[in-house]
């Protein structure tokens, strides 16, 4: 390798605060990014209807490929731990142009994924105080205030962010688990108005064989998106190469448990007809059915905390993705600036915060814009599934020499990731078939904008990222040779 190429290969110097948070805090960040309470609220009724009450089993099955993808992230992070994550991994292992588009999908998916919960935050908070949930300006004030506060916390440092996430998460998860267990007890106790649990709840096709596996998987994949948030703060985690990947696997495991408990525990609290009639606020409605208006407000509090936590995560994680890309000049270099005082990417964080505020105002004030945003938000799961697939392919490509070195590596680095890629690819194809024309055009617009940004980075910003040579793990034999050489040198 030439000296120039060697310089190009070097990742940007880490300027964020190293060893600031531990693996437990990183796990909570990944869970908060997935927003368990909000995801459950959005999908409780839909998953029950799609799977004919077999949602718990569908979540279990969906968790398997997610764990496999998380393990691919873990292996890739052992190789190259930086905020760019899949942007770097795909770019260095497969192709830099594909790497840029992967990073673009990551950034857009994270911004849209953050916006979705923000626009439903106002009604949850207003419900706590018994106010009208449809008033426009109170919703705008609430959304803007929460974004600004979470932006300040994001800028102030990763330590404060982690402490905030733990505090919000503990309350949110206790409320969600508590109501789910109470709901399950009510259903198993055959309380009046509940829907009886049967063995069909735990069969692939649900009650009467009426459940749709495809529809159930589409919803479940959307529920899991966001666990990869543990990776984008890897430069600030203790043992930055090892712990973020471990945290990703734990985040997937814990949110799967939360989703299973909530789905099985709450879907039978009321009759199927009432659940579908109140699908827009299913969690609050089931909480009211269990304990009255007072307990409904407690559940609304859990939703508000979940949205608040995911908003903070959205700003923190997206800013670090942008920072990682801007460090290679594929985005404006100013976005890679780091505050000497707070050790955070302030410019990128403020940019993300302002984008979220502008999008929130546009969504709540303009019906046309709201419709367009809804189309994009509906396609968020597709964006995540796409860069999950690309990341798994990057792991297989980078570790290709190890795949044939042992049965274990063949299974963990080849067979299982390939199966996960096939599953998510199938889900993506079925999602596109079911998507409306406007949703397809929204996705096409996102991709077209990414291509324009890539051309700009290559020709105007003159990023050297597009010239980096491909990298791959040399395999077990090479590692053994180096070890023997080092031993003989000693």
- Largest beta sheet, briefly? none
CATH superfamily: Amino acid/polyamine transporter I
The CATH class is: Mainly Alpha
**How much helical structure, as a percent, in the residues?**
over 70%
Task: Return residue spans where pLDDT drops below 50 for at least 5 consecutive residues.
Answer: 1-12, 480-490
Radius of gyration: 23 Å
Could you say which overall geometry the principal axes of the C-alpha atoms support? Answer: globular
Tally of separate domains: 1
How do the helices and strands follow one another from N- to C-terminus?
HHHHHHHHHHHHHHHHHHHHH
Summed up, the helix count is: 21
Could you tell me the strand content as a percent range? under 5%
> In whole angstroms, how far apart are the ends?
26 Å
How would you state the average pLDDT, rounded? Answer: 89
CATH architecture: Up-down Bundle
The assigned structural class equals mainly alpha
Q: Could you say what the CATH topology is called? A: Amino acid/polyamine transporter I
Based on DSSP secondary structure assignment, what is the total number of beta strands?
A: 0
Defining key terms:
490 residues; mainly alpha; Amino acid/polyamine transporter I; 21 helices; 73% helix; disordered N terminus; disordered C terminus
